[in-house]
Amino acid sequence: MVKNYFVFVIYLIEALLPLYCALDETLKVQESTFIQWANFLFEDNPVKDVKDLVDPKFLTYVTQLITGTTIPKTNNRQIDISIAIATIFPDEDEKAHQLNLPELMDGVPKTVLQLTWQIMHAFWRKFAPEGARDRKLAEAIKEWCLEATANYEEVAISDFTSSWRDGFAFNALLHSYDHSLVDMEAIREMRGDERLENAFQIAYTKFNVPKLLHAKDLHSEHLDLKSVVCYLMTLYLSLVGQSSQTTSKSTPSTSTSVQSLPTTSTATTVVSPAPQPPPPHPAQQIVEQHSVDMAPPASPTQPSSYDNEQRSRKSSSSSQKSGKGGKKRKSEEQVREYEQCLEQVLTWLLEAEEELGMMGSVSEKDVETVKQQFKQHEQFMLSLTHSQDSVGRVLHRGQQLSQKVDEDLCQSIIGQLLIVNQRWEAVRALAMQRQNLLQHHLNRLQHQQLDTISSWLIEMEKTMATNSTISDNAEEVAKQIDEHAALQERIDSQQNAIQKLSTFVAVVDECEQTSEREYEDLEKLLQMVGQRWMSICEWAEMRAKQLDGLVELLKEYEDTHEHLNHWLNEREEDLGLLRSAKHLETDEELIQQMGIMHRIEALLEQEHNQFVRLSQISTTLYDRYQTTNGLAATRVKQALETVTQRWDNIVTRLEEYSQMLVRTGKANLTDLERPESTTDEETERRLPSVQFAEPPVAASTNEEDDDERDPVKSFSKHVKALEAEIEPLYTWTTSFVVSENPEDMRKMIQVCQKRLREIKSEEVRVNAVQLELEDLHDLGLDAQKLGAANDAFDRFMKKWSRIVTKISESLNSLSKKNEEIEENMDIAQKIGEWLQSANGVIGELEKISRQEREKRLASMREQLTVQQRNIEFLRRNHHDSDQLAELEAQMTEIVERMDSLKNEQRKLSHENFVKKSESDLLKTEATVGDVIGLKTNLDTCERLLKQLEERRQNAGDDLAVQNELADLEAAVAYKQDMLADTIRKTEKVNSKTEEALNVAENLRHMLEDLKKESGELTELQERFKDLRERLSKESKVKNEAVGLLDEVCAQLAKSKNERKEQLIEETRNRTSELERRWKEMEAELDDHLSCLKKEQRKRIESALRQQTTLVNELREGLKASEAAADAEELSEHLDVSSY
């Protein structure tokens, strides 16, 4: 029958890696358990391997055991299996009907074990207690186990695998049934395998439960839950049956019934009888227990169950006789129904064949076309699945009908059934072949798509890592915008490829036990790929927002900043035009100075908007660069602070100059006010306002008058007062030291800036003192007084210069260190973010395929090298040792995890290399006669030796790997020597064969030349004899070659060479060719010699005939002569007598 497949439509896919090895081991455990359970049902253990589980003998017995029906046997094994399945599972919706019948006939282990598992469910529904038989087998068994072990703290049952490995649960089940069976205190002291063997042995000896499982099965990682459920079902039925028999024996006059699932409390109250000898057959014991469970025991006055059964059979027989006529009347209707169904099935098969033929060839290049073909074929497979029931019903009806009709019609029906089955199998085989081909091409093409996507993602992630920083230069930002636009086009173009993967088709066999686990792994992989794609898209979107309008913003910032700097330079030059009060002798000069002040104040108000705009732009740029370029953000912030300080300095200078004019009496507040400016305007514009002091008191003391009269004393007094005011600043310069602690950096900058504002507030007074000194020089005072004034001013200026220099140097040093600290902090933050991201990536690497993992690890190695250089830079320059230590610890952990993955990868690569090398070595068979194969195998050995040499160099000091590689190298070298020796033998055989052929060819030429010669017959005959004798002598070479070729054939016949049949045939052909040539020459020489002998004989016979003729003529002449002589003598005699 056709397999059912689920088609999952997913957005992205990673190559599914089927775990065939684990599945095979799991099937082995399951196979062993099911075979033992099957032999538990039989008396003579006929089930030897998995194929016997679908043997008609076993299925017939199981059918009779479960249903009580004896199914007829036919000569068709497929029909017998179909009848058994239909009888055991009358409901056509049962999973057993969906199994592939040809696979059952072929004994495919997985399919056979699935059928056996369904038979166990039927066995459970037949022999389980009445309350439990309607429930699912696994659920009922689990609930029983939970109830029975509820009072045991050591037992926690959550599944049918890991919860049973330690053996506590098995012993607890037996102890809950009968406390005397198991000593739980002793069980706690045992090892896990001992606890398991103890429970299995008690169950076997006390309840005749076979040892379907072993301790090694429970400790195996390939433990199969179906095997554990099978054993627990057998144990449960035995315990329940034992309890039922005990109860029925103790109360023979009362009808008994067994609870659906025995609880712990009821199990402890049952008194176990003394151990009885095992019954003759375990399965019969379960059947008898079932009869005890389901029916009350017979009383003496009631007929026995056996008598009832006999009467039931007799009545059934009589009813069959009475209904015989009715069956005959219905046979014709059944034949008609069968023929109608047969016609429908044949019509459907014809349509299916035509549809399958019209599907066309499978595309090998276009993945979308293959997807469409796969979906189309999937619909066709679903139609096969829906129609297989109709085919099965026709086969089933035909089989049943063939047993009820006469022999001729029976043979006709069986022939029709065979035709239907053959056509169905042909359609199914072609459909499965096409589906496998579609799946192969689809997986290949989609994996190619996925590899392309993965490579693109890796490339994009590298691009993201290199383009993380946004420049603060407008031209460079314009280039970055163009680059990002091109990058966005690449992302948009890749979006189309991603959308094509949105209809990825993954075919998963629902019968595979690992499919759910594989699908979970697939989901995790897809989430990771999806997260990578979303990260790229989010990064591109975020970067586009960061770059959007940045060029215009930077240009406006540069223009505004340059304009303000130029404007501030001009205003600072204007401030240099302000003269001290001593030099303002006329009203015109005073008005001019006040005009300069008013003009500067007006310009301040006009430029206020530019200053506000610069602040806004700087804030916007700072926000953008804060996450993408910390150094640029710091520069923008410092530039704004510098402009602000210069602005504040101008305002402070104006304020101080105004105060000086008021203090010296040169002007009053009303003179300093600008008529066009109002307080509201100043407040609204938030200008740095000039604070004017109240007018000084007009009265003055006598001391002040004296000072006014002595300008040197007055100057000295002003210098001392100013020196006293800056003394705290001077004291501060001697104690202030720039700290290396970054936490104090900002505080120290604030302190220095505060000191800078303080000296700027005193700068006006310093300028005034300087101007006052210049005035003293203009007064024409004597040298002594001027010297005293100069000395006082020099002492003050030394302190003042010390203060200014200290503040300037401190600010420069702090600013530089602050930039370095912020740069280091930014680097440390990025390293931390990368380490955190790397941890997550390494965690995901353990779940992806080996090839993808290698690519990602190589990419991470490159990034790791960069980050290690950054760590080294921080080690030299970073202030925060704790943070650096933490980063180094995290980096060390990352390196260790990556090395661990690399070692695992290297170990896996080494294991794969060893397995592949051993596999290649096993394939290199040294077979005599296979010259091409031998040379190929010799090349393989040389390649393996080179690879082994490289591996040994890369293995380093790993002794285990070195030893393993050395052993493998020795095996390869040994194989290489064998191959070289075999090649020499083969070349010897070929050389000897070539020599024999050359001898035959030379003899052939000699024969042809001899045939052309003419001469005396005797001479020719002698030369042919000589050539024949030479051929006989040279046959030794031929015989040696034939012997060697025969040895090659014998060795080839014993070898496992894939081409041995072809090589044997070629070798035999060479032998035959050599033999043929030799025999042809022998025959031809013999023919020529025979012809020469015949010719010689002819010539001799001709000569004899001539001689004979001559002799005869001579004889006749002699006779005539004698006759003449006699006549003459007679005549003479007559003449004499007449006288």
UniProtKB/TrEMBL annotation:
User: Where is the segment annotated Disordered?
Assistant: 243-335, 668-713
Extract the CDD domains matched here: SPEC
* Pfam families tied to this protein: CH, Spectrin
Composition bias (Basic and acidic residues) maps to 671-687
Q: Report the Gene3D superfamilies cross-referenced here.
A: 1.20.58.60, Calponin-like domain
Asked if the record carries the keyword Oxidoreductase, the reply is no
What keywords tag this UniProt record? Actin-binding, Coiled coil, Repeat, Signal
SMART domains named in the record:
CH, SPEC
Coiled coil regions in record:
804-1084
SUPFAM superfamilies per the record?
Calponin-homology domain, CH-domain, Spectrin repeat
Give start-end of the signal peptide. Answer: 1-22
Which residues are in the Calponin-homology (CH) domain?
135-240
Q: Where is the composition biased (Low complexity)?
A: 243-273
Presence of the UniProt keyword Manganese in the record = no
Q: Name one GO molecular function term.
A: actin binding
Q: What is this protein called?
A: Calponin-homology (CH) domain-containing protein
